[in-house]
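Marked as duplicate of an earlier ticket. Keeping the data here for the record.
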Amino acid sequence: MTEPLWEETYSDLDAKSFGDASQEIVELIPVLPVGAKVLDLGCGDGRNAIPLARAGFNVTAIDISKAGIQKLNTLSSLEGLSIQASVGNMTTFVFYEEYDLIISHGCLHFIQGNDWERLIKKFKTHTTLNGLNVITVFTNDIPTPPDLENLCIGLFNEGELYDRYSEWDIVLKKSYTFKDEHAGGIQHVHAVNKLVARNTPN
């Protein structure tokens, strides 16, 4: 199978594989409790994990890419940051504790639907009272680009993600499309559902 296109930028310390930290993550930094426990599952090369660690939070970062984790460890070391970063498959991640913030940004659609259903349940079970989940997924409103068909095996239906959090306080719910460009000039268009939800049951 062809190596995922982002592996090339993971090997370049100066490249931003997916841009800067997500705006919704930046906006949460001031409202998270001091010393908050954060899980970034599918962290890539750390675009969200690193600013959260800078803010003094206890960050656990997991990604299946060895190159991504190596880059994250190098960048965090250069800044003197402490991040528990390791290579792992999100489908087999073991939840030993509760987190104040769980992030799954742009990766659940890379696993089968039954696997992300199970993971979302675990996210909710292992989030502290008043803790937050931040999830961004691709939906099937736009066909998968041919070069990603072997990766995007669990696309969500429009609104399906929001339904899974109907009993939580929905802080942000956003559906949109965007264009991106990767190394080598590869361009994609994606349909996205983004959710920020707080564990304050109605």
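See parent ticket for discussion. Residues 66-79 form the longest helix (14 residues).
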